Amino acid sequence: MTNEILIQLLAAFLFTTGFLVVLLRRDTIMILMGIELLLNAANLSIVTFSKASNMIEGQVQVFFIITIAAAESAIGLSILVNLYRNFGSIKTQKATTLKG
Amino acid sequence: MSPVIIILCLISACLAFTMLFAKSPITSALCLLGVLIMTAGIYGMIGEHMIATIQLVVYAGAIMVLFIFSIMLLNLGESENEFKDKPGIFVLGIILGLSVFGLLAYAIVHYFNQPTIAKKMGQFTPELISQLGGNSKVLSHALFSQFYVSFEVISLALLVAVVGAVVLAKRKID
Where residue A74 sits, what CATH number does that domain have? Predict the structure, then answer.
């Protein structure tokens, strides 16, 4: 068992945990954090595979993914602030109407 | 197998598990921060210094500050136990998660040393990278020569996202 397999197993575990956070938690902010965890697990996997096969394209892609994740979380959190302003709660059950 | 990587992996897995079951969102956010810092440590340990720095500055710095700031702005307290009201969905989710992890782990352990992966090696061996002046230099050179169109498009996307976030979050003037 080498370092690469261990890190890939960690990435699989982090992916599963983020998946469960997105599925099971009811807070919108927890769902956003779960998405960040999923992206982080995917990044870890891409970088380790790219490093193990002596390439550099994976690291460049991960650089772009991190940038897009920053943009995504900024947009998501501003939507969340709007949700809290309109419904008084950020639970997913409370957001039942489309018109705020 | 390096012992530092094993320790970082164990701490990271424990923090991710705590994040799933923590009651208050601030505990989850701090656990996620720990996971991101441990991941940056793993990147550093396998020699990806540029990605480790970006992970620390952008993920653990900017994004998590944004999360903790909005938790404090919305004044979120402890939520009531979310797993008690629907135990069926909880059990179903755990079974689904275990099966996803089992399939991924089986695929990794079983297929990792297959010859198809070993054949397609790139040209950037560790010797070549150290000869060219280190990981950060090689990565930055690729970023500004081979991938410069993507880099510019990403910066444009980031600008649009910032403007969109400001427009979405500002109060409506009635």
Answer: 1.10.287.3510
Q: What is the CATH number of the domain that holds B38?
A: 1.20.120.1200
Q: Is residue B106 part of a domain?
A: no
A63 within some domain: yes
> How does pLDDT run along chain B (174 residues), one tens digit per residue?
789 999 999 999 999 999 988 888 899 999 999 999 999 999 999 988 999 999 999 999 999 999 999 899 887 777 665 666 677 888 888 899 999 999 999 998 888 777 665 566 778 888 888 888 888 899 999 999 999 999 999 999 999 999 998 888 787 665
Which residue in A29, A46, A91, A94 has the most chain B C-beta atoms within 10 A of its own C-beta, making it the best mutation to test that interface? A29
Closest residue to A71, CB basis, from B13, B32, B161 = B161
ipTM of predicted complex: 0.91
- Taking the C-alpha atoms of residue B99 and residue A85, their distance in angstroms, rounded to an integer, is 39
Q: Which of B66, B142, B161 sits opposite A60 (nearest CB)?
A: B142
Residue B39 in any domain: the answer is yes
